[in-house]
Amino acid sequence: MKSYSLPPRTGNQYTICHKDYKATITQLGAALRNFTWRNSDIVVPFEADELPPCYNGQILIPFPNRVDKASYKFQNASYTLPIDERDRDTALHGYGYRSYWQTLSVTQSSVSLLWRSPNMEGYPFDIVTIATWELDDYGIHLTLNTTNHGNDDAPWAAAMHPWLCNGLQGHGDEIDQLNSKCKLKLPAKTHVRANERLIPVGTESVDGTRFDLRDNPFLVNQPFDDAWTDLIRDDDEWTTAIFTRADDLQIAVKGDKSVTSFQVCTATGFPADKHPCGVAVEPQTAYANAFNTGTDLTVIAPQETVVNQFRISPLIENM
């Protein structure tokens, strides 16, 4: 039998660097496998032969979060998706993360990868996304350029799913206590209410509730696996969440004007091997079930290109 070398399960590994920053992007899903500053983890890493335990570093396209009953209607047609969560009867997080992406270019500080949506019955739209991860003086920047190469309008939403390191070491349920030593400032006026299947059922003001994270509270009111919207924006129309670790390092997670909500997950109650030691802070262009509700859904016309931008920036000026 002829011998051969097995590639990592996450495909080719693309390591990029800039000054004190270093990151590795995987061919599988164009995922952010690790990201460090001065050799300190900014995001919770995973190994090259390890499938991301909790969607770590994934790009969630063509929809983030859940589609109720794994089915939806779009422009008078009905579509059925594969069920990912049988206990909740939902499709989850799209399909980009399941594919090996095509390499377009690699430089010392950047990598660009391409994904073309498979011709699947539940999402037959001919979407091509180019993901570019780039390091600069301010951290890591993700740009998605998505073009509809088909003849019909296509529904679209996107998110980035980083798990931010809490600066401590822990395992399983003890991570919740470690996360409570961290703070999160979330620039959102409205909380999205969800049912027991995590499908949105309405919205509410954050005023006077545990969901008001505008004043940078400690994360003592876990669990969170929630979305927030009605975002406060910077002068440049970007929006910025700031996570403060137990060691006082602050990490900004930013989204451009296409980002309409944040999802925050503490993984409370998750199995120990799927409980990253940190908090997921996910900028997204639409929250769960947008394919059914139409809330913040992007519709890409034939031959149209849309751009989504995200950034993770350690605030290191005083470190």
UniProtKB/TrEMBL annotation:
One annotated GO biological process? galactose catabolic process via UDP-galactose, Leloir pathway
Lineage top rank: taxon: Bacteria
Q: Which CDD domains match?
A: Aldose_epim_Ec_YihR
Q: Which SUPFAM superfamilies match?
A: Galactose mutarotase-like
Q: Which Pfam families match?
A: Aldose_epim
Please provide, alphabetically and separated by semicolons, the GO molecular function terms listed in this UniProt record.
Answer: aldose 1-epimerase activity; carbohydrate binding
Q: What is this protein called?
A: Aldose 1-epimerase
- Organism, by scientific name, is Gardnerella vaginalis (strain ATCC 14019 / 317)
